[in-house]
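In response to reviewer comment 3 from the previous cycle, which asked for concrete evidence that the modeling workflow produces usable outputs, we include below a single protein chain processed end to end. The sequence was submitted unchanged, and the resulting structure tokens are shown without manual editing.
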Amino acid sequence: MTEVWLAPNHRVLALATLPVGILGGLSAAILASNAPTAVRLLAAGMLIVSFLLAIGLWLHWLRPRIAYRDGEVLFFLRARTPIAVPVEVVEAFFLGQGPAYLPVASSKAETFNLVARLSQSATQWAHQEVKPALGHWCDGYVTIRGTWCEPLTGAVIRRLNRRLREVSQRESHVEPSEARE
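The workflow returned the following structure tokens.
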């Protein structure tokens, strides 16, 4: 079972549902009216688009930024599958600061970021391709933009490091014969 360690930013996703809901509501109202056929066809298309957008937002609502499953820390920083890193490679989490990558904000807008430090000896995890709006992965440091995850506080960082330590200790105490069963 997957354990969520860092949730997405539900406030931003809820805000994004507002225009989608308005589009869907207006489309449904036009469909229910006695508007000309061409207008009603356009409204039907808009209703389908708003429905697909709502599904996409709902999927993002359910998708964490960091999770843990079966000895791997899962980083959800690209479109489809997460990047699964063995827990023994992840060393620590800490706060950083960097560009917010907001589409409408000034290029100088900054946000707190979560940074995961990976073991330098695990060179295969030094670089990974990720969606730039969600984060950056370079030289064994994974940066998750704070804009797109739950609010980052000292308590969140302590919780992440505590959980990392707990699962790392549990994984290191599993005997190889026990792991195969």
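The beta strands are 3-6, 66-69, 72-75, 83-86, 90-99, 110-118, 135-138, 141-145. We consider this sufficient to address the reviewer's concern, and the full set will be provided in the supplementary archive.
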